[in-house]
C-alpha cells in the first residue's frame, strides 16, 4: 500500500528537512510568548525606573499645561515650545521604548531563534489568489487562531475588569490629587495592571508555546518513503553505489591481472591460493605483492603466469601466509623474508640454468617450504 496522505506522516523530521524549513523561513513562533516578554520588560522597567519616569512626566505636564504667556504672543515660539515638549516626552518614554524594542529582539531567541531567509522575502503570487485566500480564511488553522484570539481577549478583558473593579477607589481619587502625586499614583496603578495582564499572558503562553512546538513538528513530519528518498539523495542510491563498487573492483582486478606477466614468481597453493611477487634489486627493499587471489581468481593468475612463462612455485603454507598478511602493492612482511628468499633463490638458479647453452646436469631442485607464520591450513584446503 502506497504511503501517501497526511495519516501516513509518522516519521519525525530529519535534520535536512528542518534546515530546509529554516531556509524557507518556517520556524516555531508564539505571539503570546513574545507579548509576554514585551509586557514583562515593560513591568521590569517601571519597577526599576518608575520614580524617575513619574517625576519626569510630572515636570513635563507642568510645562505642557502652564506655558510661558509670552510664547502665546509669538506663533514661532509656540512651534519651538511644541518641539521641545515632543523631545522631552520622547526622552521620558525612551526607557520603556528601549525595553520594548530589546524584548522584541530577544523574544525570538526563546522559541525558534533568529533567522534571516531570502526565500521568505520572495514574492508569492499564490498568496493574492482570492480563492486560496478564502480557503485559508475558513481553514481549520484559521478557526483555531480565531478561537485562541477570542479566548485570549476574553481572559485579558476579564483580568482588566477585575483589576479596575478592585482598584476603582484609587482611580477615582486621581483627579483630586496633585499633579506629581497623581502621576506617581497612576504609574503605580499602571504597573499593577501590567503585572496582572502579564500573569494572564503567562498562562496563555504556557499553553501556546508547547502547542506551537507540537504543531511545527507535526507539520514537518515525513512519510517513510520520504525518509528513504532523502537518505538515497544524501548517501547515494544503493544500486548506483553497488554498481560503482563493482566497476571499481573490475578495474582493480584488470590492473592486477596486467601486472601478472611482469612478476618474478607466482607462489601457489594448487587448490586455492595464488600470489604473484615482484622484486627489483636496488629499487625495492623487499619483494612486493602485485597480484593475489583465491579460487577462480587464483586459477586466472596461474593461467596468465603460464602463458607468459612466469615461474610458478607450489608452496601452500607460504601462499596462504602471503595472501592473508599482505595487500596489493604491499611489501612482504619481515617474518616471511626467509621463505620468500628461498623461492627467489630457486627462481634465479632456474633462470641461470635455462640461460646456459646446452645446460648440463639436472635443474635446481624446488625449495621445500616448511611451516611459516600465518600459513596454517584452512578448512577449505
Automatic annotation (TrEMBL):
Membrane topology, from the record: Multi-pass membrane protein
Keywords from the UniProt entry: Bacterial flagellum biogenesis, Bacterial flagellum protein export, Cell membrane, Cell projection, Cilium, Flagellum, Membrane, Protein transport, Transmembrane, Transmembrane helix, Transport
Ranges that cross the membrane: 33-54, 92-116, 137-163, 183-209
Chain residue ranges for the region called Disordered: 1-24, 357-381
Annotated signal peptide: none
Gene3D superfamilies documented for this protein: 6.10.250.2080, secretion proteins EscU
The keyword DNA-binding appears for this protein: no
Location relative to the cell: Cell membrane
GO biological process: bacterial-type flagellum assembly; protein secretion
GO CC annotation terms, alphabetical: plasma membrane
The family this protein is said to belong to: Belongs to the type III secretion exporter family.
Function in brief: Required for formation of the rod structure in the basal body of the flagellar apparatus. Together with FliI and FliH, may constitute the export apparatus of flagellin.
Protein name: Flagellar biosynthetic protein FlhB
Organism for this UniProt entry: Fontimonas thermophila
Organism ancestry: Bacteria, Pseudomonadati, Pseudomonadota, Gammaproteobacteria, Nevskiales
Amino acid at each position: 500500500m502506497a504511503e501517501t496522505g497526511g495519516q501516513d506522516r509518522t516519521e519525525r523530521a530529519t535534520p535536512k528537512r528542518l534546515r530546509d524549513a529554516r531556509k524557507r523561513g518556517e520556524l516555531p513562533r508564539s505571539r503570546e510568548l513574545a507579548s509576554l516578554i514585551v509586557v514583562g520588560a515593560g513591568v521590569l522597567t517601571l519597577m526599576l525606573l518608575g520614580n524617575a519616569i513619574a517625576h519626569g512626566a510630572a515636570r513635563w505636564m507642568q510645562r505642557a499645561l502652564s506655558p510661558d504667556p509670552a510664547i502665546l504672543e509669538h506663533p514661532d515660539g509656540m512651534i519651538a515650545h511644541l518641539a521641545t515638549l515632543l523631545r522631552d516626552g520622547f526622552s521620558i518614554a525612551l526607557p520603556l521604548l528601549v525595553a520594548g524594542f530589546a524584548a522584541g529582539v530577544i523574544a525570538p531567541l526563546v522559541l525558534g531563534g533568529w533567522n534571516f531567509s531570502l526565500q521568505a522575502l520572495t514574492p508569492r503570487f499564490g498568496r493574492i489568489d482570492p480563492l486560496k485566500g478564502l480557503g485559508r480564511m475558513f481553514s481549520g488553522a484559521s478557526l483555531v487562531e480565531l478561537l485562541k484570539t477570542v479566548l485570549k481577549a476574553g481572559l485579558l478583558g476579564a483580568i482588566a475588569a477585575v483589576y479596575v473593579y478592585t482598584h476603582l477607589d484609587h482611580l477615582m481619587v486621581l483627579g483630586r490629587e496633585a499633579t506629581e502625586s497623581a502621576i506617581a499614583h497612576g504609574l503605580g496603578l499602571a504597573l499593577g495592571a501590567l503585572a496582572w495582564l502579564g500573569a494572564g499572558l503567562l498562562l496563555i503562553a504556557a499553553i501556546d508555546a508547547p502547542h506551537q512546538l507540537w504543531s511545527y513538528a507535526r507539520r514537518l513530519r515525513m512519510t517513510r518513503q520520504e525518509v528513504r528518498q532523502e537518505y538515497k539523495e544524501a548517501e547515494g542510491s544503493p544500486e548506483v553505489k553497488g554498481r560503482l563498487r563493482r566497476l571499481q573492483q573490475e578495474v582493480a582486478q584488470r590492473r592486477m591481472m596486467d601486472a601478472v606477466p611482469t612478476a618474478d614468481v607466482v607462489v601457489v597453493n594448487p587448490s586455492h591460493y595464488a600470489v604473484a611477487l615482484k622484486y627489483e634489486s636496488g629499487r625495492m627493499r623487499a619483494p612486493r605483492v602485485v597480484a593475489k587471489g583465491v579460487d577462480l581468481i587464483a586459477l586466472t593468475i596461474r593461467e596468465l603466469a603460464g602463458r607468459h612463462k612466469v615461474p610458478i612455485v607450489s608452496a601452500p603454507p607460504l601462499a596462504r601466509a602471503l595472501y592473508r598478511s599482505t595487500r596489493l602493492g604491499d611489501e612482504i612482511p619481515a617474518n616471511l623474508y626467509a621463505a620468500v628468499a628461498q623461492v627467489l633463490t630457486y627462481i634465479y638458479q632456474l633462470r641461470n640454468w635455462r640461460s646456459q647453452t646446452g645446460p648440463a646436469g639436472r635443474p635446481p631442485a624446488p625449495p621445500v617450504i616448511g611451516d611459516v607464520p600465518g600459513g596454517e591450513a584452512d578448512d577449505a584446503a
